[in-house]
Amino acid sequence: MIQYDAPTTQEDALQIQTSLANTVIMTDQFNEIDTIAGVDVAYDEDNDQVVGAVVLLDAKTLQVIESCSVVETISFPYIPGLFSFREIPPLINAIKKLSMLPDLIVCDGQGIAHPKRFGMASHLGVLLDIPTIGCGKTKLIGEYETPGACKGSMSDLMHDETIIGKVLRTQKDIKPVFVSVGHKISIETAVQWIEKLTPKYRLPETTRQADQLVNRSLKALKA
Q: Are 105 and 182 in contact (CB under 8 A)?
């Protein structure tokens, strides 16, 4: 695991982002995937706090094995393009509480489909040295043709004449999701995993479970 060094200024964060972006691996660098984690964060802005949550699933059954959450003070301001610096600290600390590290992490956000090719999924993957996938509900950057209406239909997400991800229809006639490489995985394999993780719903089961946990944690925090 690479040590997380919290930036003190926007310029510092940009330098870290640029440096780490050059280390992203976009090929499959793993053996068996037995466990998959979903991560999510939620904010209590009134009290300057953030909740980070991780849910670990069995890769074959998609059943929850373990879940952890943490509550921390927000450590970095909201700056477009540098959002991961707000989310990485609580997520890493939540993941550290697991009894085992996941073989793959799916993030509700972007990987290389980011202006600096270094969204939250890539940031988390590089720091933890774990394969990660970005699976966002919405597009951050890029252009694409609308994929077909059938489940499994997809199209290329393009930016600067480069394929930065796939626009994937996970359920028939439902809005697609935006899949991109985070770290140590190819886009082809990333899409295959997102398809496996969406047997019934639009969003991956990892994302659904992590979202439910973080919302429960935030509700308890405010109670």
A: yes
